[in-house]
Amino acid sequence: xxxxxxxTVTAALPYANxxxxxxxxxxxxxxxxxxxxxxxxxxxxxxxxxxxxxxGVPITIRARKENCTPQEIVDKYHSLMKRTFEEFGIAFSxxxxxxSPVHHQTASDxxxxxxxxxxxxxxxxxxxxxxxANQFLADRYITGTCPKCGNPNAYGDQCERCGTSLxxxxxxxxxxxLSGEKPILKETKNWFLPLDKxxxxxxxxxxxxxxxxxxxxxxxxxxxxxxxxxxxMTRDLDWGVKVPLKDAEGKVLxxxxxxxxxxxxxxxxxxxxxxxxxxDKDTRLIHFIGKDNIVFHCIIFPSMLMCDGEYILPDNVxxxxxxxxxxxxxxxxxxxxxxxxxxxxxxxxxxxVLRYVLCANAPETKDNDFTWADFQTRNNSELVAILGxxxxxxxxxxxxxxxxxxxxxxxxxKSDLILMEEMSRFPKKIGDAIEAFHxxxxxxxxxNLARLGNxxxxxxxxxxxxxxxxxxxxxxxxxxxxxxxxxxxxxxxFMPFTSDKLCSLLNIAPLxxxxxxKADMLREGHQLGEPVMLFEKIEDFQIEKQIMxxxxxxxxxxxxxxxxxxVARPQKPEIVFEDFEKMDIRVAxxxxxxxxxxxDKLLKLTVNTGIDVRTVVSGIAKYHKPEDIVGKQVCxxxxxxxxxxxxxxxxxxxxxxxNSDGKLIFVAPxxxxxxxxxxxx
Length: 681
Ligand SMILES: [Zn+2]
Known about the structure:
It is a single chain. By secondary structure, the chain is of the alpha+beta class. Helix content is 41%, strand content 17%. It is globular and about 100 Å long. It folds into four domains: 6-118 and 254-329, Rossmann fold; 121-190, Methionyl-trna Synthetase, domain 2; 371-515, Isoleucyl-tRNA Synthetase, Domain 1; 577-666, CATH 2.40.50.140. Helix 4 (101-116) crosses helix 7 (255-270). Zinc ion (ZN) binds at residues 146, 148-149, 151, 154, 159, 161-162, 164.
């Protein structure tokens, strides 16, 4: 076994177009944090590197939707994620971002070096191009009909109706989402990493790591068995790291080329000594990731590092499977998720409860399920009833009998010696499990130490023995307090906030891992701090509230009948059916749209109502671009008295719904059989 002088640990760069949910945390950030905190506690030289991944097509599309620049999008989500990690206790050495100048320079230099070494192959291919928008159309910039299921709104990379993954060339009747025009084919040159030629080297590298987790090793083998294909490392896009070549105007590095280099640039940003963390053979490089990133970290990034020639290669890539939520896949687009920044608001000071539950239930070997009921049970019957209860009883009894001072242990019985022997084995048992990336097992062992303490107290019943044999109680409480001190050190990687609480309760500075296991961690006569509860019970109503919230904020939600939805405006006074019947609402199609001069909120729309073609002025310019809504079917109130807006007569009103953030969205027929002029009732 190679003995390493130092460690470089990375956690997957989260994509800066949303918040962090429990699936992200359970997938890679929490296990990485536990691993790093453990090694730090053993005095190892270790860097823990992460940052926001801020390039790629979804960010530019999100920016268009929200009507702002890509930079504004990544600024917003970078700061949200950075704050969430800090508050949740993920202790990165640095949390950087790929839009930083250091990163652009590093990624650009990396590409240039490989280019100069002749690593890339140049290849000209035909890609869809929007002549009006003057832009190549990467995956999501193009829609069309799915060749598999006939869905008219399939994307260039995937059909969301049938789940088939597509390439833009597969789409029938492709349309640019930028202009609504039919795209043309245009030749473009890109630079490819010849993974096919590199296959023998990669294969040798993977085969030398058959100690990797079976899910990771298995996925790598299956890629290799299919035969690796050359992969384009550049894209025709304007958002990203510019390709540093003369004939590469309008091209950026492929996001999966630049993102892993982000680990290197963040290290550079952190320390002048960065090279020894990336180039010295005595450094162990470990990437914590989710299972969707295995190919990038086990095959593509190592290939890039091999081609450079100066870098060490990842020694392990522990990837977790996925965490589901209440039996369903976590989904950002459907908002089926527990967002960590919201959890921190709803459960202030309870970071460790979620850390505990996500580790105890981590999807280490298969997909796993998070439920709020399980969250409550683990808090109430494990953290409160076992760990919290043991620590509290020990402290209260010490306060009661010995004024809060550690009593002297004068004479051990056989059962005490057995207890000490058992206690001494925990640091290694827990440490070995962490080093093998078996975090659930490690945490279960930690709880076994608390169970051992509870059993010791129950077997010895100091509250009964005190009157007849106070000396025996001294020994029992002394040893119980030693277990508490051990717990404070050994729980630290998993529950750092609770470890701090326990240290202040014991009135000690945090202890190192290697100090643990002994029965003399607290000296006789040492004054303890005030007894406080480490955990508190979580009540049914708190859990019900979370489950309601989950269902109410779900995008395709069906709230239970009779439920009160606190976010919506109160209902207006009751009306009779005849009032409703006076309104004539029809299905209509927007056939043209333009901005109204001198009014930044208004759009002038031409609408086919099925009865006639008329003009409607609508106050939606802040939320919708004219080019995005042409062709859209809407619901229109057609018998509203006409009125003039900015000199234009508006003949009707389009039905819109207001989102919780004030944005107006269309209330529109989703059935493709809806016909213009159809009465809405
Ligand atoms: Zn389809």
